[in-house]
Write a structure and sequence with these properties.
The structure holds 2 protein chains of 2 kinds. Chain A is an alpha+beta fold. Chain A is built from 4 helices and 6 strands, in the order ααβββαβββα. The longest helix of chain B has 11 residues. The chains are: A alpha+beta, B alpha/beta.
């Protein structure tokens, strides 16, 4: 009985051992499979990480491209602004030169006007007109002619570069000088450089007038060697001389006359009161 | 207080005023005027000047004589002299420069020309 039992027990143990061995083999196989799968997972993870990196790089690249485009736009704007500023700068430089020139012209006109009205002495007024024509206009030969209202003749009262006696008198309405005195319109030869000096037909003739009343003329025959043409300021000076020189001459003459009359009256009064 | 003293020797009041007017645009300029060469020499003998402007054609003593006398004076040997004249011929210019003038300006003058020459000779930026 016992032997039967021992045999049965031994058989079960054998079976169990067999089952255990199979279980152990299966476990080993599972572990290998597990190891293989883990390795595969690692491979896939690494592969996945590589894909993500490329995606991140692509994103960064897009961001940088957008930034570059933005900077390009900014650069264009700045270049445009620089160009605008340069143009403004050029405008300012041109304007500065113009203002400087205008300032010079105004200085000349101011000084001419100031000097013309600085005296009531007739001879001094003529001297100042002469100085203005030499120093500010640059004439070498010229004459100041005044109208004698009794004879209607224009006679030279002051000259520069030529003798007073050499300047022929002009009748109102006759010749270039007479026409200017009659019309009150300034006369300029068309081509200063080719002008040939002629005492009865000047290069320039400017009427000296108080409103519509012409009291004389300025006649220019020759410019200084270094002066080949008239500048815009010269025409302004001529305009100023036409009015202000006439007023200065007229005032100084009136003053001289009144001084002379006053002196005569004073002489009579002195005689009467003695 | 003025930094520079300038003497203008010129018989024409118009020119004196024009030169003064131009120079007054510079800061620290003190201007003294003389009617002719003799008057100019008198002023030079009592005062020290940094720059002299002189006309050529003047009564009593002309500008070239003044340039010559000033250049022979040890105390004014280095003082810049500018000649302003109606004489535009090259030989007139050379003569003035040979006598010791530093610059030569022909009339008609523009105030900015005076200003530029003064700035250069006084070394004003």
């Amino acid at each position: 009985m016992a032997t039967e039992d021992d045999k049965g027990l031994h058989s079960k143990a054998e079976e169990f051992l067999q089952a255990f061995k199979k279980g152990a083999e299966f476990t080993s196989e599972l572990m290998r499979e597990n190891e293989r799968l883990r390795y595969r997972v690692l491979q896939l993870e690494e592969s996945s990480r590589g894909t993500e990196g490329r995606s991140e790089a692509s994103e960064e690249s897009r961001r940088l491209a957008a930034r570059i485009a933005e900077l390009e736009r900014e650069k264009e704007e700045i270049l445009g602004r620089i160009q605008e500023v340069e143009e403004e700068n050029q405008d300012f430089a041109t304007r500065y030169v113009e203002i400087e020139q205008e300032n010079n012209n105004l200085a000349n006109l101011y000084i001419a006007s100031y000097q013309l009205h600085s005296t009531l002495d007739f001879r001094e007024v003529l001297q100042i007109i002469t100085e203005i024509i030499i120093n500010l206009i640059g004439a070498e030969e010229f004459a100041i002619m005044l109208l004698d209202e009794k004879t209607n003749d224009l006679q030279a009262v002051a000259t520069e570069g030529i003798e007073r006696e050499d300047v022929p008198p002009a009748k109102i309405g006759q010749g270039v000088i007479g026409e200017v005195a009659k019309s009150g319109e300034s006369y300029f030869v068309e081509d200063v450089e080719s002008y040939v000096s002629d005492l009865s037909s000047p290069m320039v003739c400017i009427p000296l007038q108080i409103k519509e009343h012409v009291i004389g003329v300025l006649v220019i025959y020759k410019l200084l060697q270094q002066k080949s043409k008239f500048d815009p300021v010269d025409y302004e000076l001529f305009t100023l001389l036409a009015g202000h020189a006439a007023t200065a001459i007229f005032s100084s003459r009136l003053y001289s006359d009144s001084e002379r009359k006053l002196s005569t009256i004073q002489g009579f009064l002195d005689l009467l009161t003695r | 207080m003025s930094e520079y003293k300038v003497l203008i020797v010129e018989d024409s009041p118009t020119m004196r005023q024009l030169i003064s007017f131009a120079l007054k645009r510079l800061r620290g300029i003190q201007i003294c005027e003389a009617n002719d060469g003799v008057d100019g020499l008198k002023k030079l003998s009592v005062e020290k000047f940094d720059l002299i402007f002189t006309d050529i054609n003047m009564p009593i003593m002309d500008g070239l004589k003044l340039v010559s006398l000033v250049r022979n004076d040890a105390s004014y040997k280095e003082t810049p002299i500018v000649v302003i004249t109606t004489e535009g011929a090259q030989e007139d210019r050379e003569r003035a420069l040979a006598l010791g003038a530093n610059d030569y300006i022909t009339k008609p003058i523009q105030p900015n020309r005076i200003l530029d020459v003064a700035k250069t000779l006084l070394k004003i930026a």
